[in-house]
Amino acid sequence: MSEFPTHPVPANFKDAHINPQQYQEMYQRSIEDPEGFWGEKAVEFLTWDQPWDKVMEYDFVKGTAEWFAGGKLNVSYNCIDRHLPERASQTALIWEGDDPADSKHITYGELKDHVCKLANALKARGVNKGDRVCIYMPMIPEAAYAMLACTRIGAVHSIVFGGFSPEALKDRIIDSDCQAVITADEGVRGGRTVPLKVNADKALEACPGVHTCLVVKRTGGDVAWNDERDVWYEELVDQQSTDCAPEMMDAEDPLFILYTSGSTGKPKGVLHTTGGYLLQTSMTFKYAFDYREGEIYWCTADVGWVTGHSYIVYGPLANGAITLMFEGVPTYPDAGRCWEIVDKHQVNTFYTAPTAIRALQAVGDEPVTRSSRASLRLLGTVGEPINPEAWEWYHRVVGDGRCPIVDTWWQTETGAHMITPLPGATPLKPGSATFPFFGVNLALLNEDGSEIEGPGAGYLVVKASWPSQIRSVYGDHQRMIDTYFSNYPGYYFTGDGASRDEDGYYWITGRVDDVLNVSGHRMGTAEVESALVLHDDIAEAAVVGFPHDIKGQGIYAYVTPMQGVEPSEELLQELIQLCVKEIGPIAKPDVIQWAPGLPKTRSGKIMRRILRKIAENELDSLGDTSTLADPSVVESLVENRPG
Ligand code: WTA
């Protein structure tokens, strides 16, 4: 699997929360007696207003799952109030601005005041328990306040990544029927502004159901104003009381919706609920990062993605941790920024994506080695498979050979880590996410659905429910069943392929469906194709991924112009802009190849396998093309391959 030697548990992790023997014992118990195991952990990790009736009940045929039903708790109470007796004046959130001169600390006491005021402001605007609130924000503390304020009053948040276009924002607001939007005048990233309010205005033209748009003044830039709908955040929030009683929620009440891409159709709203989600995020946070009291923890994700939800906000705050939120990008003002921040705030744990590691590695060691990084104790990675070379660089150069690397495999749908090393328990193999977390019962399946025993490679599935499992696709439970529970009945299908070696280590190989992973961002090939064919001059488009040194995967689009339309540089630019408009800058194709025809079977199905091979430049292994309606199409594509 990997040429690289195994890294044993370092000496300074011998007294970690979980040692090797505990991992074995607890894992076994969690699989044999999940109700007993999770029931105990739910008491240890969370504060409940009322006990549950039953730990869990699920049905992988109907795609249903309930955890701790009947139990009552409030997420903001668990993330803030219960820590106040000991931590009112301890920092909860460190904010580091895009500009290296901007940073601030927010204590747990201050966090409570901010969150309660905003919760009262939302109530004043008529937002009630169960209502959906869209959060379209830059990485500023108000984004975390907004999430927690929703949970305080039982509103359901739906965060839309600030890099998404007005079109993408509109679709998401409409799909989850949001009544309020929280945004900012502008965001700031890498020294440039992001026109969030302008984008929101465009999106809201088509969303008459939104009665309130709360706007944080981040830059003071000029924005248009709709007096009935728009409210300055500061003006409304400042007048509110700092007391707001937390709403008692059922463990199975919805907590948030987060849109993610699948292999077909529009992005789906992954629905997470209250109790199970908070339990698994807080427990994985403590164990996977071996979090210790008072440590400074930094996850570089954006709150617009699930990693930001679970490991910037909910997991850390439920543990009373100190979590750092960074507004900017790793390369601004230069490629040393992350390590400057590590030194400035004495960061102990740093959690990022392989794409960022590769991008920084490509710049060379100097921006890293000019910093001290002596505070670092642990490094983490998430979002895509990490190649062993990048792993070794991260370990040797960033971590000075001293910090274990936790490679955490999970998904928007799983809510929390599913496969991850525990730094005090797991010898590390570079490139492997290692072993399942407690309670996670995995299998690898053959094409025919039979389980692979021992070493082998196949489809990665989960055999039993876990607390932070997706509960439904918002508004479309059938899609939940079709997407996750139909391919292999009785199992949750992850969409990933994986192998297991002779020591039982898991190695994720990537998606086996038509989902791309571009710089750790999930995107359906169908979404990009739909954007491209919106152009009047385009008849058809097919999109595949290809290996990209930095992004992991790049976007390769084959585009067929309408009859009589001449391909041109101008048309190409228009197509790129269309992807940006419909989805966002992350959806820009890296390569567009003009394709007079696409390889199709006689029944008209596009043979993506062949398109992938051409994109990957694997021209010797195109395979059997004899079943194609017109095999000459392939020759022409190969001949005209750009570059
Ligand atoms: C991929 C991100 C290999 C995988 C938390 C999964 C990974 C998809 C890893 C989910 C990892 C995530 N190693 N692949 N450590 N972590 N993935 O929903 O293909 O944005 O299915 O959640 O990312 O992406 P999502």
UniProtKB/TrEMBL annotation:
Limits of the AMP-dependent synthetase/ligase domain: 86-464
Family: Belongs to the ATP-dependent AMP-binding enzyme family.
Record keywords: Acetylation, ATP-binding, Ligase, Magnesium, Metal-binding, Nucleotide-binding
Encoding gene per record: acs
Organism: Pseudohalioglobus lutimaris
Occurrences of domain AMP-binding enzyme C-terminal (ranges): 527-605
Cofactor requirements of the protein: Mg(2+)
Binding site for CoA: 189-192, 307, 519
Catalytic activity: acetate + ATP + CoA = acetyl-CoA + AMP + diphosphate
Positions bound to Mg(2+): 533, 535, 538
Short name of one Pfam family: ACAS_N
Record carries keyword Magnesium: yes
Protein's name in the database: Acetyl-coenzyme A synthetase
Recorded GO CC terms: cytosol
GO-annotated biological processes: acetyl-CoA biosynthetic process from acetate
Residue ranges constituting the Acetyl-coenzyme A synthetase N-terminal domain according to the UniProt record: 23-79
UniProt feature coiled coil, ranges: none
Gene3D superfamilies, per the entry: 3.30.300.30, N-terminal domain of ligase-like
N6-acetyllysine modification, residue list: 605
